[in-house]
Amino acid sequence: MFGQILIGLAQPFVLSAPTRYSDLWFSPRGRVSATAIASLANPFGGALGQLISPLFVNSPSDIPDMILYIAIISSVATIPSFFIPSRPPTPVSPSSNHIYAPMMTQVSTLVRQPVFWLLCIPFGVYVGFFNSFSSLLTQILTPYGFSETQGGIAGALLIVVGLITAAITSPLIDRSKRYLLLIKTFAPVIALCYLIFIWAPLSNTIAYAYVVCAILGAASFSLVPVALEWLVETTWPVGPEVGSCFCWAGGQALGGIFIIISSVLEDNVGNPPGNLQKALIFQAVIAVTVVPMLFCLGVVGEPVRTRRLEVDKTIGSETITIEEETRA
After folding, report:
1. Tens digits of per-residue pLDDT, 153-176?
2. Nearest alpha carbon to residue 124 among 297, 214, 260, 256
3. Percent of all residues in the chain with a pLDDT value above 70, rounded to a whole number
4. What contacts 275, CB < 8 A, 6 or more positions away?
5. Bridge partners of 275?
6. What average pLDDT does this structure show over 22-27?
7. How large is the average pLDDT for residues 9-18?
8. Phi/psi of residue 275, each to 5°?
């Protein structure tokens, strides 16, 4: 339990760092791709862990050895981080040279911006549902006669197809800067996937679940880096890690809440016993409900500006304080 707590405490630093790292080390031509690689490395590592861990275990007595081997691999993987400089020798863009205001000032500025809430709430909901859905996927399918292996394949498709799609879409967004187009395209796709998955366990064919999981993974993984980078662009000069931290914290918290709710909604006396149909309906309703918030981006309130990109188009370095930007 103590080890799990330590891992949980480390998650905010791991999840919030990518946007700050890409801001320091990458120009506007590569930030979305850098954020995608760093952000999606986390679920990719989780998938590898689920794939590799069974190789070390032939009986329950092998579990302590498995944990030791994973701890060694994880510890070795952290060694390169000690040799990464805090920042590049020269700023990669004008915005990289910006001096940020104190943290509480940035938080105060961030929470007063409607665009932050319009993106943060759906982001948290979709991250939370993705976490709970991927955790309970086998439990959703097995009451209807599908095997644990088939559930595992569905989970693998969710992640692998998502990673491949994100690797394609991220460089395209880096070149085109069409953040809102992708957000408003993939968010309804995610909601639709949760909606039509209600009937996947009832279909008696695993291909149904495979296809929906593949599409859901593709849309979800592609949306994450683009949403995070767009939030940085529109809330700048708030630090990249501030909005990212709020979004990820909300998503992780909601993920735990959604898992608990799904467990409560488990139907132990239904047909078949132990089915999670009510949980699937719950997640579909909430996923569809938050879609309009994303369509309000750029429409409701003041016109949205990609402020960091505007600064990066200038020649030379300039320092803009958050107080000056607030008064402007």
Report:
1. 898 899 889 999 999 999 999 888
2. 256
3. 94
4. 143, 144, 201, 266, 267
5. 267
6. 86
7. 78
8. -75, 160
Q: How many helices (H) and strands (E) does the chain have?
A: 13, 0
Q: From the CB of residue 131, how many other CB atoms can be counted at a distance below 10 Å?
A: 18
Whole-number Å distance between alpha carbons of 141 and 120: 30
Average pLDDT, the chain: 86
Q: Average pLDDT for residues 89-103, to the nearest whole number?
A: 81
Amino acid identity of 235? T
Looking at the DSSP bridge assignments, the partners of residue 267 are: 275
Structure tokens at 149: 């292996």
Task: State the chain's maximal CA–CA distance in angstroms.
Answer: 68
Least confident among 70-74, 210-214, 259-263: 70-74
**Spatial contact of 153 and 214, defined as CB atoms under 8 Å apart:** no
The pLDDT tens digits for 39-73 are: 888 778 777 776 777 777 778 787 888 888 888 88
H or E element that contains 13: helix 2-25
| E strand spans, the chain | none
DSSP string for residues in 135-185: HHHHHHHGGGT--HHHHHHHHHHHHHHHHHHHHHHHHHHHHH--HHHHHHH
Sign of CA dihedral 115, 117, 121, 123: positive
Residue 267 has φ and ψ, to the nearest 5°, of -100, 100
Spatial separation of the C-alpha atoms in residues 232 and 116, rounded to whole Å:
10
